[in-house]
């Protein structure tokens, strides 16, 4: 495997003093952190779409990147070349996982049957390359948003024929994910939302989406797929309002349609900020409800109101994310998938390596910062002190359901004005700076 990135050797850990930009300075996969290898904590994955199908185009201009694996005039030969290039990249970068959309790995044909034949061919090739390299599939998903047929959504489309097409596409994508040993399957509703309520029956569309997800659960059981199903929250873009707006909206949706036992959440950093939340907020909400499954690791530009999908290099974000993930028990079937793309001006193939190395080093540092935060116990101790009133006396009675408004009124009359305590926010933020 030295055809598409011949100038790149296997990326290795060289330590924080290394001046080689094609080396890891902090990500040492075999280093033990809190009893596990760093690689097992982080479970890095490369996404197929931005990394190998994204060529720098944006709403104002076409592609800027030229790739030697994307030159054939025959679509399936391009797909084969891209798959070989991808596994060369995965291997040289040193990740253990990858992720794909169905339309990433195989171009659409003139009809569904022919498209599925193309998918079968590319699945066989992917399976062969997985066996040769030892890589695993973190999760698969479906692109039910790019084609013209999905202009008004997939499972929420006003046309039952489009609903049926989307179901057929998801069925096949779940099956090939299962065949490739995928550890999960993600539902990202790229156009499951609306632009105006003047032409939208919101209740009916949500009901249809709930039916669709229950059908997916049934099919998962039918084919014997044991991986997790994930829903990925996203608030907007391309529609004005996405039904999977944020973790809270997804949780409410799953509860309403009796899906909480069958789904977890795939949290993306950039989607969190588009929903006016922090990355950590979305992770904490998912973790607090037992729904944290996997993570799309990227970041957005706070000065731009769209999904910029930049590579994560913010140590505060990575440290706080890993602090939440570790305290929630870490990943099982999920991991850190770099759903990120090169900037339009980063046109050389080597930039793919620079970008992923930076992101992997950032999360490796975040992991070790989180380890110190947990081991020292400073933040946990402060949290316990702040909520200590709930552990005994009145607080314990309230949490045990042994209080009502009348008893609480009597308590307040007898005890008078509550004693207040400082939140110590500035002190805690300064302590955090000390770890970073």
From TrEMBL:
<dbReference type="GO" id="GO:0000287">
    <property type="term" value="F:magnesium ion binding"/>
</dbReference>
<keyword id="KW-0859">Xylose metabolism</keyword>
<feature type="binding site">
    <location>
        <position position="232"/>
    </location>
    <ligand>
        <name>Mg(2+) 1</name>
    </ligand>
</feature>
<dbReference type="InterPro" id="IPR036237">
    <property type="entry name" value="Xyl_isomerase-like_sf"/>
</dbReference>
<dbReference type="InterPro" id="IPR013452">
    <property type="entry name" value="Xylose_isom_bac"/>
</dbReference>
<feature type="binding site">
    <location>
        <position position="271"/>
    </location>
    <ligand>
        <name>Mg(2+) 2</name>
    </ligand>
</feature>
<keyword id="KW-0479">Metal-binding</keyword>
<dbReference type="GO" id="GO:0005737">
    <property type="term" value="C:cytoplasm"/>
</dbReference>
<feature type="binding site">
    <location>
        <position position="268"/>
    </location>
    <ligand>
        <name>Mg(2+) 1</name>
    </ligand>
</feature>
<keyword id="KW-0413">Isomerase</keyword>
<dbReference type="GO" id="GO:0042732">
    <property type="term" value="P:D-xylose metabolic process"/>
</dbReference>
<comment type="similarity">
    <text>Belongs to the xylose isomerase family.</text>
</comment>
<feature type="active site">
    <location>
        <position position="101"/>
    </location>
</feature>
<feature type="binding site">
    <location>
        <position position="307"/>
    </location>
    <ligand>
        <name>Mg(2+) 2</name>
    </ligand>
</feature>
<protein>
    <recommendedName>
        <fullName>Xylose isomerase</fullName>
        <ecNumber>5.3.1.5</ecNumber>
    </recommendedName>
</protein>
<dbReference type="GO" id="GO:0009045">
    <property type="term" value="F:xylose isomerase activity"/>
</dbReference>
<feature type="active site">
    <location>
        <position position="104"/>
    </location>
</feature>
<keyword id="KW-0963">Cytoplasm</keyword>
<keyword id="KW-0460">Magnesium</keyword>
<feature type="binding site">
    <location>
        <position position="339"/>
    </location>
    <ligand>
        <name>Mg(2+) 1</name>
    </ligand>
</feature>
<comment type="subunit">
    <text>Homotetramer.</text>
</comment>
<feature type="binding site">
    <location>
        <position position="309"/>
    </location>
    <ligand>
        <name>Mg(2+) 2</name>
    </ligand>
</feature>
<dbReference type="InterPro" id="IPR001998">
    <property type="entry name" value="Xylose_isomerase"/>
</dbReference>
<keyword id="KW-0119">Carbohydrate metabolism</keyword>
<feature type="binding site">
    <location>
        <position position="296"/>
    </location>
    <ligand>
        <name>Mg(2+) 1</name>
    </ligand>
</feature>
<feature type="binding site">
    <location>
        <position position="268"/>
    </location>
    <ligand>
        <name>Mg(2+) 2</name>
    </ligand>
</feature>
């Amino acid at each position: 495997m030295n055809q598409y990135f011949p100038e790149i050797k296997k990326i290795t850990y060289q330590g924080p003093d290394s001046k080689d930009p094609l080396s890891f300075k902090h990500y040492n996969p075999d280093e033990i952190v809190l009893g596990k290898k760093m690689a097992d904590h982080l479970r890095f994955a490369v996404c197929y779409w931005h990394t190998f199908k994204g060529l720098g185009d944006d709403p104002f201009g076409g592609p800027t990147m030229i790739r030697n694996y994307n030159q054939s005039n025959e679509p399936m030969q391009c797909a084969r070349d891209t798959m070989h290039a991808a596994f060369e990249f995965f291997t040289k970068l040193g990740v253990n996982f990858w992720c794909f959309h169905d339309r990433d790995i195989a171009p659409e044909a003139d009809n569904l049957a022919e498209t599925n034949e193309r998918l079968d061919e590319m699945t066989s090739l992917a399976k062969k390359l997985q066996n040769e390299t030892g890589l695993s599939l973190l999760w698969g998903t479906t692109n039910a948003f790019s084609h013209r047929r999905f202009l008004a959504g997939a499972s929420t489309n006003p046309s039952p024929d489009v609903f049926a097409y989307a179901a057929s596409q998801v069925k096949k994508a779940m099956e090939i994910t299962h065949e490739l040993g995928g550890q999960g399957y993600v539902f990202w509703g790229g156009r499951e939302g609306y632009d105006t309520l003047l032409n939208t029956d919101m209740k009916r569309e949500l009901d249809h989406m709930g039916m669709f997800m229950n059908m997916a659960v049934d099919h998962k059981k039918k084919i014997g797929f044991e991986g997790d199903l994930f829903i990925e929250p996203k608030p907007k873009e391309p529609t004005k309002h996405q039904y999977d707006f944020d973790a809270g909206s997804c949780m409410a949706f799953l509860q309403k349609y009796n899906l909480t036992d069958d789904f977890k959440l795939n949290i993306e950093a950039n989607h969190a900020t588009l929903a006016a939340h922090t990355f950590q907020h979305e992770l904490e909400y998912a973790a607090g409800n037992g729904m944290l499954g996997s993570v799309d690791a990227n970041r957005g530009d706070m000065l731009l109101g769209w999904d910029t999908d930049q590579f994560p290099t913010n140590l505060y974000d990575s440290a706080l994310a890993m602090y939440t993930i570790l305290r929630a028990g870490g990943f099982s079937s999920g991991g850190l998938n770099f759903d990120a793309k090169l900037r339009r001006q980063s046109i050389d193939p080597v930039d793919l390596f620079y970008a992923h190395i930076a992101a992997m080093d950032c999360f490796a540092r975040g992991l070790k910062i989180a380890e110190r935060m947990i081991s020292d116990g400073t933040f946990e101790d402060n949290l316990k002190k702040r909520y200590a009133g709930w552990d005994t006396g009145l607080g314990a009675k309230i949490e045990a359901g042994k209080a009502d408004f009348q008893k609480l009124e009597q308590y307040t009359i007898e005890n008078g004005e509550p004693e207040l305590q400082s939140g110590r926010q500035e002190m805690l933020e300064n302590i955090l700076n000390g770890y970073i």
